[in-house]
């Protein structure tokens, strides 16, 4: 009786298989999740000590850049935006330029303001507002306004000064924007904000040229197929006419004989 009861209580192969399926489909515990590989963030690649993200499409390299190591591989390159990997911020926020914590942090120092104002003035003595310095005003008043050996009228002189002031104002505004960008980058670097490093990556295929080549291949095959169909139709017609002529000649010979 004991042997028969043991035989009946042993699990069948189907029950074993069902138990294995249930165990395999069960969620992993906390101990197993510690050893699970982290899921990579889509669009972010690990390149040595940097985390890089593609910032554009794959494009052909310029002729003057073909000697570089990136362009020697495939002749194509793709722009990347990289950040250091050692003290990297979360990937979702690392590629977004962060703003300063307070307006006081973004405000440059007085010494820097004086330096920027001094650099904004050009060699002719024009400042940011386009007004002439005192020394240049005196020199301009003593110098006779002449264009091509002829003196300018007061209206022409006023128009000339307005154009020059506008030109100097635009130039000083562009220089001021460049200085502000440099100061912003310097303040970010001093406050510990990570700056993106622009790099290039070798890529095998340019999508635009690949699409162009593919459609060109399809059009060429369609043209060859159409040409072959036209030749086949004319050949069949020529053979039919030749056979009809032979048949007519035989009929005429039989009637004559």
From TrEMBL:
Residues 106-131, 158-186 have a biased composition (Basic and acidic residues). Residues 90-186 are annotated as: Disordered. The keyword Membrane applies. The chain crosses the membrane at residues 214-234. This is Transmembrane protein. The keyword Membrane applies. Keywords: Membrane, Signal, Transmembrane, Transmembrane helix. Residues 1-32 form the signal peptide. It comes from Rhodotorula toruloides (Yeast). It comes from the Eukaryota.
């Amino acid at each position: 009786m004991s042997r028969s009861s043991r035989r009946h209580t042993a699990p069948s192969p189907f029950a074993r298989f069902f138990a294995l399926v249930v165990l395999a489909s069960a969620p992993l515990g906390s101990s197993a999740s510690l050893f699970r590989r982290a899921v990579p963030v889509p669009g972010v690649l690990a390149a040595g000590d940097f985390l890089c993200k593609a910032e554009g499409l794959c494009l052909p390299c310029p002729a003057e850049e073909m000697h570089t190591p990136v362009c020697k591989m495939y002749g194509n390159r793709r722009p990347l935006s990289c950040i250091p990997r050692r003290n990297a911020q979360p990937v979702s926020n690392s590629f977004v330029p962060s703003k300063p914590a307070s307006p006081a942090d973004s405000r440059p120092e007085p010494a820097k303001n004086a330096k920027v104002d001094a650099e904004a003035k050009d060699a002719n003595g024009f400042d940011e507002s386009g007004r002439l310095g005192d020394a240049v005003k005196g020199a301009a008043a003593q110098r006779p306004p002449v264009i091509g050996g002829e003196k300018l009228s007061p209206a022409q002189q006023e128009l000339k000064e307005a154009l020059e002031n506008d030109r100097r104002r635009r130039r000083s505004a562009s220089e001021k924007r460049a200085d502000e960008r440099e100061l912003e980058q310097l303040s970010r670097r001093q406050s510990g904000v990570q700056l993106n490093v622009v790099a290039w990556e070798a890529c095998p295929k340019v999508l635009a040229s690949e699409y162009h080549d593919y459609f060109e291949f399809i059009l060429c095959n369609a043209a060859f197929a159409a040409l072959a169909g036209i030749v086949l139709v004319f050949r069949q017609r020529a053979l039919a006419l030749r056979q009809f002529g032979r048949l007519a000649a035989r009929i005429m010979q039989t009637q004559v004989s």
